[in-house]
Write a sequence for this structure.
DNA sequence: CTGGGGATGGGGCCC
DNA sequence: GGGGCCCCATCCCCA
């Protein structure tokens, strides 16, 4: 575990790739436009962890049903391991794997944006709520006033009847529709537990419906379809498959409807049965997951996996100093540190840079209005990190904002 | 302490 | 499918 690197509690396999499709370079925008799902994900995950551990968290108020998610929660790994009956020394990755199988709704993430962090020194998981909320939301996430999720979306075998409408883009294939089948499932998760987890913002109750029509259905390329197979249904008569196509029942008659798996031809009497089959049993689906043998990550394509494996094998070595990199262009950038080459020239001053990103950051210093602005005092900053420091350091407006 | 530069990592997109 | 490139993010360091 690399110190300071985020530890991912979400499944990368489907959700990560899918949720980033069509949102190129707009991770921040993603959070801004999907705060409801983000908040829901975070709150559920925190609640679930809390229920698992009953741990004395370093900031326990964050777990209270009436708690404040505006601050990061720190969850001791030992407490989680203990509650999960894992080895006390189980790694975050081990915990992640366990949680992925027992609490699939925790995979409800936006790639990096929904990750928990891992503090190696304190050996705790840290929730990301403070960071992303303060930086990307216009309002603080406050917990629960009114229910926003139907419990049947989270209870085994009941999700078939869900009528909750959500944007297909928001859900990974492993998202909330997946059964929760942990023997350690907290009591309230067994029935209407999600009704304990409503969310409300400073502007009102959160809804899980799609906030941005422009991003819904605007993708006609086919690449952007992230329909969860069953999660995006709005009614029993309009099931969606993984490609977003309508999955209508086959052999329908007055007495019973049959749902047909287009991957292996098996049919089921209920949509939930079909969904469960596709989620956990259909071999043609499991074949689509490519696991990294070096770590826990899973990818939907071999190409993506190969690309990832390079981060382990580091095939690109610098002939001058021996330092290794995963990509050729990373090596190229590194070689510039030896040669002193700086091909990226600032058009406003004489400075030049070896890296385009650094030039971009530099260009911000020439701008009167910086890219990153404090939502409360309107002061602008050239970098997000500076804005972060500003807000963390006690912007009066920010303190007032989070209540 | 703040702001900025240097270096690097990683996923996605395009060709 | 792979290489190259883009963009975002982050850490470290220094003035």
């Amino acid at each position: 575990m690399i110190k300071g690197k985020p530890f991912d509690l979400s499944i990368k396999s489907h959700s990560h790739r899918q949720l980033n499709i069509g949102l190129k370079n707009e991770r921040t925008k993603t959070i801004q436009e999907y705060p409801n799902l983000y908040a829901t994900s975070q709150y559920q995950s925190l609640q679930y962890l809390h229920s698992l551990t009953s741990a004395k968290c370093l900031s326990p108020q964050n777990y209270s049903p009436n708690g404040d998610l505006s601050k990061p929660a720190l969850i001791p790994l030992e407490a989680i391991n203990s509650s999960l009956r894992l080895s006390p020394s189980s790694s975050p990755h081990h915990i992640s794997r366990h949680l992925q199988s027992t609490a699939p709704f925790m995979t409800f993430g936006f790639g990096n944006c929904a990750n928990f962090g891992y503090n190696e020194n304190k050996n705790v998981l840290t929730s990301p709520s403070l960071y992303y909320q303060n930086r990307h939301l216009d309002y603080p996430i406050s917990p629960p006033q009114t229910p926003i999720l139907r419990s049947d979306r989270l209870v085994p075998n009941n999700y078939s009847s869900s009528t909750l409408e959500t944007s297909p883009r928001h859900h990974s294939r492993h998202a909330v529709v997946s059964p929760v089948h942990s023997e350690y499932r907290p009591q309230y998760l067994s029935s209407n537990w999600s009704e304990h987890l409503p969310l409300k913002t400073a502007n009102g109750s959160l809804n899980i419906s799609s906030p941005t029509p422009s991003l819904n259905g605007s993708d006609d390329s086919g690449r952007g379809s992230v329909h969860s197979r069953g999660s995006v249904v709005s009614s029993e008569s309009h099931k969606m498959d993984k490609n977003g196509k309508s999955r209508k029942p086959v052999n329908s008659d007055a007495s019973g409807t049959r749902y047909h798996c287009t991957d292996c031809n098996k049919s089921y009497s209920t949509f939930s049965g079909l969904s469960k089959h596709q989620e956990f049993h259909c071999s043609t689906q499991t074949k689509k997951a490519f696991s990294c043998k070096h770590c826990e990550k899973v990818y939907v394509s071999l190409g993506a996996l190969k690309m990832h494996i390079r981060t382990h094998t580091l095939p690109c070595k610098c002939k001058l100093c021996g330092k290794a990199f995963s990509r050729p262009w990373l090596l190229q950038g590194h070689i510039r540190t030896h040669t002193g080459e700086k091909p990226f020239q600032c058009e406003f001053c004489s400075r030049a840079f070896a890296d385009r990103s650094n030039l971009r950051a530099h260009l911000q210093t020439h701008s009167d209005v910086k890219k990153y602005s404090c939502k409360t005092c309107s002061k602008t900053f050239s970098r997000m990190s500076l804005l972060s420091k500003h807000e963390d350091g006690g912007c009066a407006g920010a303190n007032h904002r989070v209540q």
Q: What stands out?
A: Residues 6-218+225-234 of chain A form one domain. The two ends of chain A are 34 Å apart (CA to CA). The first strand of chain A starts at residue 6 and ends at 7.
